[in-house]
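PROTOCOL LOG
Step 1. Enter all chains and additional molecules of the complex.
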Amino acid sequence: MTSTAAVKAPGRVVTLDARLTFRRMFIACLLLLVALLLIIFGTSLLGSEQLPTRATICALVTYGDHSCGLRPDHEAILFDIRLPRIILAASVGASLAAAGASYQALLRNPLAEPYLLGISNGAAVGTMLALVYFAGNEWSRPMMAFFGALLATLVVYRLALGRAGVTPERLILAGVIVTTFLSSVIVFVTTLMDATRIRSFTFWLLGDLSGTTSSMLAITVAFALLGTAVLVVNARSLNLLMLGERDAFDLGVEVGRVRLVVFIAASFLVGSSVASSGSVGYVGLVVPHLVRLSLGSDNRITIPAAALAGAIFVVVADTLARTVIAPRELPVGAITALVGAPLFIYLLRRGI
Amino acid sequence: MLEARNLTIKYGLRVAVAGLSLKLQPGEIIAIIGPNGAGKSSLLRALNASVQAAAGDVLLDDRSVATYSRRNLSRRIAVVAQEADLRFPITVLEFVLGGRYAWSSNSAWGWETVRDLEVVQQVLHETELEELSHRFLNELSGGERQRAVLARALATEAGVLLLDEPTANLDLAHQAALLMLVRSRCDTRAASAVVVTHDINLAAEFANRIILMKEGRLIASGAPEEVLTPLLLREAFGVTVLVDAHPVTGVPRITPVHEMLR
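Step 2. Run joint prediction.
Step 3. Record the structure below.
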């Protein structure tokens, strides 16, 4: 009886299912957004200076209403130091996770990640050159970082492209080569800088969210939103590219154009993140992996969800970085690598 | 309909297809047979503009396929390649929905329309994949997976199907079942198909016309009885074959006669 019913009304099964995909995206993103807001509230209380819970929340919700009874010095800590840093962490996390998810789909490789492919290093070289040659201009840093990231991406892609397309092994090897080459460029550029800045520099290279300005923060947030939006718009094309370039081409994807657009958008994301806070590694590996595990491989869900989950991940990681050995700080990249490297090994052993 | 005119394809200096012409009629299945390296797959790839013609042209409704947009061409010509190479888990439903990409709005974003879902539903029903639609593709058997590849091509609603050795990894029953689906699509919707295959007996059963290729050239073209002769097959493959009639269907049946076994 049940089987005839299933045959008679089969249309409903599929229709419902596909609408559920949209609903799944909507619900997942809504939940992640709520979680992100809660975590932003929560982590803004934490730090070397403990802020009073009730007054801080009140000040956050009203955006600095003085009737909340928050002391002026606490208010300064909250709005001038802690909140900008948390928002920066969220933007960086969202950027890196969305970029990672798109690289993985485009290059058909779950290990593709801006840091591991040397793209972050490309952006770092760009940022450093901007600091050396256009020190006064704040826009020069994200723009140079963007060009550095894009150049590194194209070089890695070119190196990885063999007769049989981009194979996972070739891609990772190309990433290693570009990473090590750019590392030596970074060392070289570092020697051009004056000695007083070298220490803060090495800290920045490992991912440091502490030293940003309000205009840099604005640029990073804007790039994170725009870049992620462009990637989401191309998510359906990425779904097909995930199955191979030839399949995608046959099904109507303008492969070359989509690839270029995704590379450019992802380079903006990685570039602005690195310019503002250095190379925070493994975010683009860990977050999309967990998102795919729980929500499936449809990039129309994966990319926006990864952006929100990446924001949460880096906000939490940075809170740990600035609290575990307070008043001193760890580079946030050290924390993310602590989580990411074992996952990388696990994925590699599982046979990519 | 689809037509190749004096089509020549070159890879560097190597000529893969040399001045070949063919015309596909509505409702027709053409099988392309020939030895390895005869240029069968290159010809097939050129028919949907994946490979550029060095000379000659491929015309779809009297317009060169190279002038169509990717999306527009993919609504009219679908490809069934050998099994997809999967790196990420994807369900049968998600996979088959991929066939509707060419019908999405220009921004390429957004979600499937009700019409997309209806078409996919129908195709899943035809290919008997309904029950499996929520399963992951990499959990299926080879036959089921190849059926999903065909389902995705059918979901494009294209009038022309290009199949590149679609039955290579399938057992006897699945080979016939797959080609039956292609046959019924051609019969019911006046679609047409070009099938590259090494299985000559299967080609004889399902194709209206067989094209025999060797070294990029067309040696013979016509009904199975006309092309599948010992003389022509010897010329193409360099082996002696025995041709008789299939005891049930009456179509030509070939049996290679290997020298060493004689």
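Step 4. Note key features.
Strands of chain A lie at 161-162, 165-166.
Chain A touches chain B at residues 6, 10-11, 13-15, 17-18, 21-22, 105, 108-110, 168, 232-237, 239-240, 242-244, 246-247, 249-254, 258, 292, 296-298, 300, 352 (CB under 8 Å).
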